[in-house]
Write a structure and sequence with these properties.
By secondary structure, the chain is an alpha/beta fold. The protein is about 30% helix and about 20% strand. It is built from 10 helices and 14 strands. The strands form 2 sheets. A 12-stranded mixed beta sheet has the order 9-10-11-8-7-6-5-4-3-12-13-14. The protein has a two-stranded antiparallel sheet with strand order 1-2. α1 packs across α9 and α2 packs parallel to α3.
Length: about 325
């Protein structure tokens, strides 16, 4: 008999799990990490592959069907294709994806594909080398573009580009990124700058809103219309260019919060369960696992975590409090 689904007090069913495999990263985007002296979790505190696989199996038994591997930068985790193969083999996982900055894709795109990965989200804010260096503090654009080309040739079924929209910085990149994505069969997603950086740089005036980007793309490429019958639980609102040229997406967490449709839970690299990207509290899965807890006890913790989920992050109210962890420590 199937178990009851993961439902919170607002009736939201949770079937989407994001698993961070590391808090380490090989670039230093200013809106995420300091340039130096970054404090990482001790390696012994990071979940091993067996622990990750066990938790995913428990989550799947509770109704999770969608799985995304994140970081930090997940490709810096040694032997990641081994984990991907194990996760892809779990009965009940219908959708497996990975979010990466793409720097290591030239070497890992093929092993990951062979392991069963078919969907990629690649972080790319700009095609301009100097602006890329300014944003990431690293000169790695050529590797990212090379990795994307390899992934395209391998036949990954859907490749999305994640671009963080910071006002007075990325405006020159909006149209070139969209044209590049359209030419290669990718889909670019513009993500409004969120208060998740490690240096408290976020300010509402620095948010380039989705409506501004839509206006620019409609003017410079072709008119955009919202995709009919969208998935109401998807974080991105998708639009189509007139004439069938392709799609773009917008994750407008600041100007258009989608909390009431959220179906996601998150497991951090150090084994903490979070019901929201902006959550203040989290539950300690790792300690439970390492103390000999049964699968049933871990499943009960997952249910309690989801049951206690708040209505939303309140980013647009005076009650908003930024989470104590920065983005790279939470998992994208």
């Amino acid at each position: 008999m199937p178990l009851a689904p993961l439902v919170d007090s607002f009736g939201r069913v949770h079937d989407n799990l994001r698993v961070s495999v590391t808090d380490r990263c090989n670039i230093r985007c200013f809106y995420c990490m300091p340039e130096s002296d970054v404090q990482f979790v001790e390696r012994g505190e990071i979940l091993d592959f067996e622990e990750i696989e066990r938790f995913v199996r428990i989550a799947v038994s509770l109704g999770v069907t969608k799985l995304r591997v994140t970081g930090g930068e997940p490709l810096v985790r040694r032997d990641l294709p081994v984990l991907v193969r194990r996760l892809a083999a779990i009965s009940g996982v219908r959708d497996l994806a990975l979010t990466t900055n793409g720097v290591l894709l030239p070497d890992l795109a093929e092993p990951l594909y062979a392991a069963g990965l078919r969907r990629l989200n690649v972080h790319l804010d700009t095609l301009d080398r100097e602006r890329f260096r300014k944003i990431t503090r690293r000169d790695e654009l050529d590797k990212v573009l090379a990795g994307l080309e390899i992934a395209r040739r391998l036949g990954y079924s859907r490749i999305k580009l994640n671009a963080v929209a910071v006002k007075d910085l990325v405006e020159p990149d909006i149209v070139p990124l969209a044209r590049y994505a359209l030419a290669n069969g990718f889909e670019v997603r513009y993500i409004e700058f969120m208060p998740l950086d490690a240096q408290n740089l976020w300010d509402r005036s620095k948010v380039l809103r989705a409506e501004e980007i839509i206006a620019t793309l409609s003017r410079e490429i072709a008119p955009l219309t919202a995709v009919p019958d969208p998935d109401p639980r998807a974080p991105a609102t998708e639009y189509e260019f007139a004439g069938g040229a392709g799609r773009v997406g917008f994750i407008a967490s600041v100007s258009r919060p989608f909390c009431l449709n959220c179906n996601r839970i998150r497991l951090t690299a150090d084994g903490k369960l979070r019901y929201c990207l902006f959550a203040i509290e989290e539950d300690d899965v790792k300690s439970l696992m390492r103390s000999g807890a049964t699968d049933e006890e871990i499943a009960a913790l997952v249910r309690r975590n989801v049951a206690g989920k708040w209505e939303g992050h309140e980013i647009n109210s005076t009650k908003f409090v930024a989470p104590p962890r920065p983005m790279y420590s939470i998992g994208g």
